[in-house]
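Lecture 7 notes. Example A: sequence first, then its structure tokens.
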Amino acid sequence: MVEIPDSLRSVFSATVHERDGTYVVEVPSGELNHDTVSLGETYRIAVFDSPTTAQDEHEPASADRAQSDRQRGSSGPPVEEGEIRDVTIETTGDQGDGIAKVDRGYVVIVPGGQPGDEPTVEIEQVQENVAFASVVDIDPRAL
């Protein structure tokens, strides 16, 4: 699995907006509520190109997934260890692992995943801002 440095404080999706001649990335309020970031502080950010997918714009397709999200509420990670999910790999990270996003832009790292792959994965490790998964069923288009 990819190694996440202890200095990583937050992973979320956001849109860059132009405002009064400057560019703004809006930080979700949950990042402040969980003391991940503080007002007035300076942070280093990384930017990954991530085209919007239909799944990002709509409710989860699966009734089980929607029910699971309601049980967890919107304050914690939207996945649980042992959960099985269908994901779409959007990009690859520096270590070559696939990066997928699920509900609320939450990041799931999938070893060996390539952009466009749609594997079924099992969530193995959950952290506040990122989860790690293993492939349990390979996307047939990737063969």
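Example B, a different protein, same format:
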Amino acid sequence: MTQVSSQQVLDAGLNDWRQLAQGLHARFLTGNFSAGLRFVEAVAEAAEAANHHPDVTLTYPYVDLQLISHDVSAVTKRDVDLARAISDIAREQQIEAKPEALAQLELALDTAQLAAAGRFWAALLTGDADAVKGDDVADPNGRVPLLWFQHTEAHETPRQRFHIDLWVPHDVAEQRIQAAVAAGGTVVDAEQAPSFVVLADGEGNRVCVCTVLDR
């Protein structure tokens, strides 16, 4: 399957869904466990018919879903098509989506020696030293956030080597940034906005607020 671009995802009009760092995401407010289970069962039928399956988290008040084509590690047309079908199911069951509640957390480690760091972090985080794919340590069981290695020149410590990448819906990013600034943060670098904006807390610890726009 061919990867679809972030702009193609936006043009698809998937109002219930937002593209974050890894795939398409949605939260549906089912209200209770029984309603959530009925919703998930209907989603499972649609997934089986499409021969394409989302990652599903069923909790008491809501259901979270993620769609990505794992064979190409990207969003494809089949993800877009299944997302649309799932939204149709939600409307039939009178279940509301809440895309503004979505977020995805990644950890980034500046390193000039991936070979020295990658297997260590893979073994520590996932129990498998071989769980390094390209520049990422990915936990196939979804227990810990994705860790990716940002290539840098060798440098002396102290310098912040870890930072957080917080992926939020593109239409939520500015609100989230302003809330963080109002809570005592500062904008360090907005040159790459809306792709990402670098913030710092009162002690100088940095975080990137990321969206899929302009990538």
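Note on Example B: The first strand starts at residue 18 and ends at 19. The two ends are 20 Å apart (CA to CA).
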